[in-house]
């Protein structure tokens, strides 16, 4: 199409950090802004992005449209380092959330209570020594062509570095981003757990699904990918 807009997929840069954190919060509630569920954007972005942007930036990629970041894939091929960091980070962020608790509204307080009481129970099992990823896209980037190109860039990066499997833990529900969608990209669903934190906000059951893919046939793509929406 002549009026189609080009998108660019490239490696993450340090200058992308603020945009990635902002996008994380814009999509944190089932693809919508996290604010109705949890008002503390700073801690929310810290929890989901800081390891990747600050400690393993070479494993992450972004999508640009008209020069603006409209999606990202934050990845890690150092699972033991990621797990150690996550353990320490959870303690620090949990303490900070408790210090701010009295200043939160009731929905944010309920979110903190859920994290402390049920959050760890509702995370399905995942391979411990396998690279993984975390992906978020704004509506304009939620297309099969952009998602496939973003995955391909990351898979090729892993394959070049000797990795042969990758997994992700994806929030899924019936009307959008169901498990069948990830099967189109070669993933298999290992297991899933029902997430209760959205029960008062969303009419459908919401799950966290662990999906895994073999990289034996990954193509040696370059990092920068150009296509058309």
Can you offer a commentary on this structure?
35% of the residues lie in helices and 24% in strands. With 229 residues, it is of the alpha+beta class. Helix 2 (41-55) runs antiparallel to helix 3. It has one domain (6-228): Gcn5-related N-acetyltransferase (GNAT) (Aminopeptidase, 3-Layer(aba) Sandwich), CATH 3.40.630.30. The chain has six helices and eight strands; from the N terminus they run E-H-H-E-E-H-H-E-H-E-H-E-E-E. Helix 5 links the parallel strand 4 and strand 5. It has helices at 17-26, 41-55, 79-100, 106-117, 144-160, 179-183, and strands spanning 6-11, 61-65, 68-76, 132-137, 165-172, 188-195, 206-214, 225-228. Strands 6-7-5-4-3-2-1-8 form an eight-stranded mixed beta sheet, with helices on both faces.
CATH superfamily: Gcn5-related N-acetyltransferase (GNAT)
Order of helices and strands: EHHEEHHEHEHEEE
Class inferred from helices and paired strands: alpha+beta
Multimeric organization: single chain
Looking at the structure, the CATH topology is Aminopeptidase
Order of strands across the main sheet: 6-7-5-4-3-2-1-8
CATH class category label? Alpha Beta
Q: How many structural units, i.e. domains?
A: 1
Strand fraction band?
A: 15-25%
* Extended strand count: 8
User: How large, in whole angstroms, is the Cα Rg?
Assistant: 17 Å
The dominant shape is globular
């Amino acid at each position: 199409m002549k009026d189609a807009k080009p998108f660019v997929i490239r490696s993450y840069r340090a200058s992308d950090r603020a945009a990635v954190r902002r996008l994380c919060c814009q999509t944190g509630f089932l693809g919508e802004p996290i604010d109705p569920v949890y008002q503390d954007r700073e801690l929310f972005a810290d929890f989901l992005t800081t390891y990747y942007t600050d400690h393993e930036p070479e494993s992450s990629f972004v999508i640009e449209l008209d020069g603006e970041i409209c999606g990202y894939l934050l990845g890690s091929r150092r699972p033991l380092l990621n797990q150690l960091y996550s353990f320490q980070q959870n303690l620090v962020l949990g303490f900070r959330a408790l210090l701010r608790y009295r200043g939160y509204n009731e929905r944010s307080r309920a979110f903190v209570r859920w994290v402390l009481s049920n959050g760890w129970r509702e995370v399905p099992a995942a391979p411990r020594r396998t690279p993984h990823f975390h992906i978020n896209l704004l509506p304009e980037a939620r297309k099969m062509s952009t998602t496939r190109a973003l995955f391909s860039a990351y898979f090729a990066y892993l394959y070049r570095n000797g990795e042969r499997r990758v997994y992700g833990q994806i929030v899924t529900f019936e009307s959008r981003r169901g498990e069948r969608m990830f099967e189109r990209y070669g993933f298999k669903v290992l297991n899933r757990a029902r997430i209760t934190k959205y029960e008062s906000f969303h009419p459908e059951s919401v799950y966290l699904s662990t999906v895994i893919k073999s990289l034996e046939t990954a193509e040696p793509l370059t990092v920068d990918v150009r296509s058309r929406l």
